[in-house]
User: Fold these one by one.
Assistant:
Number 1:
Amino acid sequence: MHLVNCAVTIAPWTLPGPIGAYLACGGDWRAAVLNIILIVISVVLYYPFFKMYDKELLEEEKAKEAIEG
């Protein structure tokens, strides 16, 4: 769809995602925006699974606490 320029260089892996995308695409600000949007989508998708796992661990902790005293 050509919404973002193609990568023209390899950015150092230690850079934060949006900055690395910006530099890798030759200074295309849309690459940084796309990277931020993808991070937000990832957080939204993973959050329910994180909460389920956290709830499971909390229940295990409460069960151990009830057994121990």
Note: Helices lie at 17-24, 29-68.
Number 2:
Amino acid sequence: MQTKNPLELFRTLPPKQCPECGDQITEQAESYLMECDHCLSKREDY
């Protein structure tokens, strides 16, 4: 069994998509948000 380079795994992952609207999310380092900025701005926090 051949072990793949870990960096190659991350290069081949599909872009993250917002589950609310389906738009592609531009990921930032150490960001664990699942929704895009547009959908997050529409959300009301209680």
Note: The mean pLDDT is 82.
Number 3:
Amino acid sequence: MEKTYVIFEGKEYIIIHQYESGYCEIKEEGKLNEEIILVHYSELTMTITSK
């Protein structure tokens, strides 16, 4: 599965899931699932789609 990298508040995150409502679950690569953040897609800046 290809990872989608985004920038949120100056940090790089990976999109875990995107809902039809436009909200996304994101987390820093290597962090635990307890550290997932829910943000709206409009708050994200897209980066490189794969590393």
Note: The first strand starts at residue 5 and ends at 8.
